[in-house]
Each structure stands twice: as structure tokens, then as C-alpha cells.
Amino acid sequence: MEQLITIELLGETFQFKVDEANVNPKEIADYLSAEIHAVAEQFPQHVLKTNKMAIVVSAALNITKQYFELKTNHSALISNVTDRTLKLDVLLDKINP
User: What is the pLDDT of residue 78?
Assistant: First the structure.
């Protein structure tokens, strides 16, 4: 079932659709809001009013970096589990031919 979520970021209101049942829309909105807030704290106060795009793009780049780090870590984990499973399979075959 598709949901329409409203979120306020830097004084602007945005809406996004969530159509997957296993996704928590509030968690997504809260995460994005926290990332933008963390980036906004690094900018001088006048930038918050004049260059919101710089803040949003910086937050997007941070989130993208986190995504690719997680993707790389996930691939490494899958590879590690696969290797270990194959080794266990070989050991089990030796014990119980």
C-alpha cells in the first residue's frame, strides 16, 4: 500500500511516497532530517537562509557515501559468509563422507 509522507526540512515542506510494507517512513524522514540538521550545524547561520541547496547537497553526498560504504561492507560480509560456508561444507564432507 502506497503512503504519502510529509516532512519539513530547512523550513520547506516536502512529500514522498513509500510503497514498501517493510520500510518505516517515519524512520526515513527522521534519518534525513537528522542528516540535514547535522550538516546545517556546520554552516554559518546566514547560509541557512541563502544557500539551502548547499546544505541539502552536502547531506545527500554524506548519505550516498554511507550507502556505498554499507553496500561494500555487505558485499564483503556475503563473500565472507560464502567462503566460510564452503569451508564448513568441505569439513563436513570429510567427517561424514
Answer: 98
